[in-house]
């Protein structure tokens, strides 16, 4: 009996995966427990072992192709067994399958979406041509960022993504020096008020990190960019901070101290406020589907020329690291500039 | 001359002019119409056909009388109540029934049905589902006749209701203006569906309207085949001479309802019975006997042969071929078309 | 083969004359087409050349005229009926829609209705709401009719001759603003087949399907856009029924974008039909932008000249629309 090689679920919310590499070719002898292929989900890459001894046959999803969780991607034949009869439930193409098809019983669930409405609302916006090109290139639409109106993926976006497969980002790193005097001043003034009015729950202690994170959220929201406009903020490698732009500074301060207060969101920017750690400048990597990381180095006091005179100022170097295909250099620059304006003059956050 | 000797000298011109063969053929056609429609009604009630139908039972004299004056090359345009006109012009009831049953063998290959049965080859340019639809078409056919220098005519059958349509007035005006060979034969059966002529027409007679278009307007007893035939023959002769159109109004009555869904709420039983007593078929038979054209045996033979023909026609139709859905759009455009 | 410049109106007149020369069954009927020469001087002096029997002035009875033409066509003639304005075809709807279009079908394919109707259409003459409409899509909705809209003098002649040859009823919509347009027209009688679109300009960035005068406005817009590096492919649809879907599909597969430009009211019109055909076709998977429709306003045609212009697509509207479409702004 031929043994099905299925695409296993390796992550909680995984519904499909891309086969990034096959370690064996059709016709090769494989051994149970040895690495057979590698899959990539949105978050991780993992090696999958062979489920049986035998001859690998009928590879249904080629390298770079994707498949929903639970469907057969190949078969392992016993010695002497000829080609396997492929059940109609196994996948032949690598078309992305909507989440509604999360498979309870993978081998009997049809590949047709059960609810068109649900699948459509979850599917990314893309032109018919973009969809076809992605299908042909075995690219998942949700791994491609759309540059059209409403984030619509166009043929150009797919062609760009296809030239650079999703696991190889083209990283762009931009740094900028920001003056932190106003931000620190505001933080201290608010905290002084909080100290004087211990009974007032509306004025609580805040941190400069909270102010900086709110500035970041507003800067990205105010930008005209399909991804940044709706981006969420993740605290380091930790949790996504829910609806930062709508929260008060003390709420954000609270969120940063409560690791379980996890939100969800797409187009995530990982923020690293390293004000106290003594690191002056860093570009901390991020993992797709996150789209960028923003690292803020130590706040240092230094002499800077003001009206040709040395003045003691507080400054910080912030560094944006992003995939230049998702956020082009001009937008990244604009984003960073707008972030700096808010940091240097936090009163603009009220505008 | 006929089997019983000479036509009696007191007989009216209709009986003098037509041979007894022609007269008996006319009677036979009236019977064919009657039996065709009775057969159609029965088929409907048995659920053998799916559409509705408009029966002209009681109006056979105008259909046959008007077409008696015509040649095969003359045209007619007909109405939604057109089975009689079709048979009058010489159509084969077998092929009419096939159409009624929606069969490929039918005159319209099952695409027309009761309301559009027409034998184009016998000069019938179509039975029309639109009240007044055939009026200008008949004028156009007459225009073509004139352009082709033929001495044919076009008879346009229409009802009292159609005379209230704009198409009626436009058509009569153009026909008269251009002196075209058209005979407008109005079968005034007193009702446009349920509304009587008294309630729908500002004049008492459709023929009164002819004066507005400077053409003769003749009123005849539509249940007398002789009256109808004589008037139409004279109008046809006038048309063939190039003297232009005429309007012949046949006062008649349909003893059945407008269509199969009619519950006869708008007329009295007495009125219907009164008209049934004036049934054109027994009346014609009585005259044929009186003028010595046919005896009882001959009349019985005609009746029976008409019944047999209709029975055979129904059988033929029931065994006809159902159209293939793949041919649905076959006749929308001419195959010669670009 | 002589080719000279004629106006659109002259090209139609030449076609009518050549058709009458070739076939004694062809005759013309309409309002004021005799000594007056037609409201738009299309028939001109034809009555002097062919006589009143063949160039018939008819009473103002559009329904009657249409019915007479249907009857004459059934009985072996080839009438060419001129409606003074296409708006007046509404008076003849019964005969056009119930009779001309359906008789062949209802009679089991046993008759032909070789009837040609000529209909001056469109806005731009200050004639307001009842003399300026573009109703061609109404009629194109009816199986049994053929509906064409020639946009050049050469097509006006060739398509009219093809229509007169055609055994089925054909409606020829002539845009009033085109009557004075000049263009090269071959002298001999020739036919431009009904149901074939024409690629009036090749391009690779967007397919523009246009009808009648909009073909010329689209071409002008394409010239402007070419200076910006946008190359529009302009398809002159020419025939609404039947529609040449293949030509549009091939073009969209090349350009990946589609815009429909027409004068009739935008909603439920030609643009909807073409969009749907592309959405149903193999070209769907080639679309890289939403389909754009530029059509007439959802209003009757107004009298005031500024409003009248605003009611139908003008060159700047087309330029802006196509620019937005190609640059991914919609």
Could you give a quick summary of the protein structure above?
Chain A is α+β, with helices and mostly antiparallel strands.
Description:
Chain A is of the alpha+beta class. Chain A is built from 7 helices and 15 strands. In chain A, α5 (208-221) packs across α6. The longest helix of chain A has 16 residues, at 181-196. In chain A, 37% of the residues are buried. By secondary structure, chain B is of the alpha/beta class. Chain C has 330 residues and is α/β, with parallel strands linked by helices. The mean pLDDT of chain C is 97. Chain C folds into 2 domains: 5-184, Thiamin diphosphate (ThDP)-binding fold, Pyr/PP domains (Rossmann fold); 198-326, Rossmann fold (3-Layer(aba) Sandwich), CATH 3.40.50. Chains B and C meet through α6 and α7 of B and α3, α4 and α5 of C.
Draw up the topology in text:
The complex is a heterotrimer of chains A (351), B (338) and C (330).
Chain A: E1 3-6, E2 16-22, E3 29-30, E4 35-40, E5 45-49, E6 54-57, E7 66-68, E8 72-77, H1 116-122, H2 128-136, H3 155-163, E9 171-179, H4 181-196, H5 208-221, E10 232-235, E11 240-241, H6 249-257, E12 268-273, E13 292-296, E14 300-306, E15 309-323, H7 329-344
Parallel strand pairs in A: 10-12, 12-13
Antiparallel strand pairs in A: 1-8, 2-4, 2-7, 3-6, 4-5, 6-8, 9-15, 10-11, 13-15, 14-15
Chain B: H1 13-17, H2 20-45, H3 60-68, E1 75-78, H4 83-88, H5 93-100, E2 124-127, H6 134-147, E3 154-159, H7 166-177, E4 182-188, E5 191-192, E6 195-196, H8 197-200, E7 217-221, H9 225-240, E8 246-251, H10 269-276, H11 280-290, H12 296-318
Parallel strand pairs in B: 1-2, 1-3, 3-4, 4-8, 7-8
Antiparallel strand pairs in B: 5-6
Helix pairs in contact in B: 2-3, 2-11, 2-12, 3-9, 5-12, 6-7
Chain C: E1 3-7, H1 8-22, E2 26-30, H2 46-50, E3 55-57, H3 62-74, E4 78-82, H4 93-100, H5 103-106, E5 116-121, H6 136-140, E6 146-148, H7 153-165, E7 170-175, E8 182-186, E9 198-201, E10 206-210, H8 213-226, E11 232-236, E12 239-241, H9 245-255, E13 258-265, H10 270-280, E14 292-296, H11 305-310, H12 315-326
Parallel strand pairs in C: 2-3, 2-4, 4-5, 5-7, 6-7, 10-11, 10-13, 13-14
Antiparallel strand pairs in C: 1-8, 6-12, 9-11
Helix pairs in contact in C: 1-7, 3-4, 8-12
């Amino acid at each position: 009996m031929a043994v099905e090689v299925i695409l296993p679920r390796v992550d909680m919310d995984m519904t499909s995966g891309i086969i990034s590499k096959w370690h064996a070719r059709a016709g090769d002898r494989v051994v149970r427990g040895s690495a057979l292929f590698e899959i990539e989900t949105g978050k991780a890459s993992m090696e999958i072992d062979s489920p049986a001894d035998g001859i690998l046959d009928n590879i249904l999803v080629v390298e770079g192709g994707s498949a929903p969780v639970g469907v057969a991607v190949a078969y392992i034949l016993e010695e002497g067994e000829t080609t396997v009869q492929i059940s109609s439930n196994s996948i032949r193409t690598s078309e992305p399958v909507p989440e509604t098809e999360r498979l309870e019983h993978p081998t009997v669930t049809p590949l047709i979406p059960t609810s068109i409405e649900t699948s459509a609302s979850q599917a990314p916006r893309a032109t018919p041509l973009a969809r076809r090109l992605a299908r042909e290139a075995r690219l998942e639409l949700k791994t491609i960022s759309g540059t059209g109106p409403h984030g619509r993926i166009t043929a150009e976006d797919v062609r760009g993504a296809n030239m650079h497969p999703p696991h190889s980002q083209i990283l762009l790193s931009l740094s900028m020096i920001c003056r932190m005097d106003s931000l620190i001043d505001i933080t201290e003034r608010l905290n002084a008020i909080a100290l004087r009015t211990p009974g007032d729950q509306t004025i609580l202690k805040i941190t400069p990190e909270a102010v900086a994170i709110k500035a970041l959220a507003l800067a990205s929201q105010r930008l005209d960019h399909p991804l940044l406009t709706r981006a969420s903020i993740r605290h380091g490698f930790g949790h996504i901070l829910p609806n930062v732009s709508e929260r008060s500074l003390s709420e954000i301060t609270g969120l940063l101290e409560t690791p379980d207060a996890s939100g969800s969101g797409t187009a995530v920017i990982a923020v690293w406020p390293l004000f106290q750690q003594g690191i002056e400048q860093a570009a901390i990597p991020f993992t797709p589907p996150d789209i960028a990381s923003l690292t803020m180095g130590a706040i240092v006091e230094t002499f800077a020329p003001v009206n040709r005179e040395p003045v003691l100022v507080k400054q910080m170097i912030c560094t944006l690291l992003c995939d230049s295909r998702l956020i082009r250099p001009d937008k990244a620059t604009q984003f960073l500039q707008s972030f700096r304006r808010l940091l240097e003059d936090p009163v603009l956050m009220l505008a | 001359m006929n089997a019983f000797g000479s036509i009696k000298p007191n007989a009216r011109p209709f009986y003098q002019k037509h041979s007894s063969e022609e007269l008996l053929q006319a009677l036979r056609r009236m019977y064919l119409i009657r039996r065709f429609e009775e057969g159609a009604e029965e088929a409907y009630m048995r659920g053998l056909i799916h559409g509705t139908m408009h029966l002209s039972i009681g109006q056979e004299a105008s259909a046959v009388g008007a077409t008696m004056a015509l040649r095969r090359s003359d045209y007619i345009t007909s109405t939604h109540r057109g089975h009689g006109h079709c048979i009058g012009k010489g159509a084969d009831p077998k092929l009419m029934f096939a159409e009624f049953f929606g069969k490929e063998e039918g005159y319209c290959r099952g695409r027309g049905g009761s309301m559009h049965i027409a034998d184009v080859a016998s000069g019938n340019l179509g039975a029309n589902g639109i009240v007044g639809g055939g009026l200008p078409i008949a004028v156009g056919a007459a225009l073509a006749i004139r352009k082709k220098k033929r001495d044919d005519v076009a008879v346009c059958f229409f009802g009292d209701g159609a005379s209230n349509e704009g198409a009626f007035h436009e058509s009569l005006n153009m026909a008269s203006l251009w002196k075209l060979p058209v005979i407008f034969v109005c079968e005034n059966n007193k009702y446009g569906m349920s509304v009587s002529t008294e309630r729908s027409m500002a004049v008492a007679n459709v023929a009164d309207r002819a004066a507005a278009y400077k053409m003769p307007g003749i009123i005849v007893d539509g249940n007398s085949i002789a009256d109808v035939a004589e008037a139409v023959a004279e109008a046809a002769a006038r048309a063939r001479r190039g003297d232009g159109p005429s309007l012949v109004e046949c006062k008649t009555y349909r003893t059945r309802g407008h269509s199969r869904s009619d519950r006869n709420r708008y007329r009295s039983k007495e009125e219907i019975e009164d008209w049934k007593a004036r049934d054109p078929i027994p009346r014609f038979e009585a005259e044929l006997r009186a003028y010595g054209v046919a005896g009882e045996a001959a009349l019985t033979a005609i009746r029976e042969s008409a019944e047999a023909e209709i029975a055979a026609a129904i059988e033929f139709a029931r065994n006809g071929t159902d159209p293939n859905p793949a041919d649905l759009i076959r006749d929308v455009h001419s195959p010669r078309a670009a | 083969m002589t080719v000279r410049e004629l106006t659109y109106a002259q090209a139609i007149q030449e076609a009518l004359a050549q058709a009458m020369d070739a076939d004694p069954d062809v005759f013309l009927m309409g309002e004021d087409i005799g000594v007056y020469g037609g409201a738009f001087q299309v028939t001109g002096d034809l009555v002097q050349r062919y006589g009143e029997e063949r160039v018939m002035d008819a009473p103002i009875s559009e329904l009657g005229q249409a019915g007479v033409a249907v009857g004459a066509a059934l009985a072996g003639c080839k009438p060419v009926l001129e409606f003074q304005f296409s708006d007046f075809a509404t008076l003849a709807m019964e005969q056009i829609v119930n009779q001309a279009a359906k008789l062949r079908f209802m009679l089991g394919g046993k008759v032909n209705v070789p009837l040609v109707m000529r209909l001056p259409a469109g806005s731009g003459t200050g004639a307001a709401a009842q003399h300026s409409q573009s109703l061609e899509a109404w009629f194109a909705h009816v199986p049994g009719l053929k509906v064409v809209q020639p946009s050049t003098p050469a097509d006006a002649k060739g398509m009219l001759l093809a229509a007169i040859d055609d055994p089925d009823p054909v409606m020829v919509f002539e845009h009033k603003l085109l009557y004075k347009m000049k263009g090269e027209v071959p002298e001999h009688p020739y036919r431009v087949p009904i149901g074939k679109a024409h690629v009036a300009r090749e391009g690779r960035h967007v397919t523009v399907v246009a009808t009648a005068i909009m073909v010329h406005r689209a071409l002008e817009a394409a010239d402007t856009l070419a200076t910006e590096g946008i190359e529009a492919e302009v398809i002159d649809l020419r025939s609404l029924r039947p529609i040449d879907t293949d030509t549009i599909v091939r073009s969209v597969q090349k350009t990946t974008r589609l815009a429909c430009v027409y004068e009739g009211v935008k909603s439920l019109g030609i643009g909807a039909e073409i969009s749907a055909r592309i959405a149903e076709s193999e070209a769907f998977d080639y679309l890289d932008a939403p389909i754009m429709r530029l059509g007439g306003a959802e209003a009757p045609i107004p009298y005031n000249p500024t409003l009248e212009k605003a009611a139908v697509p003008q060159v700047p509207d087309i330029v802006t629309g196509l620019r937005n479409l190609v640059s991914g702004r919609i």
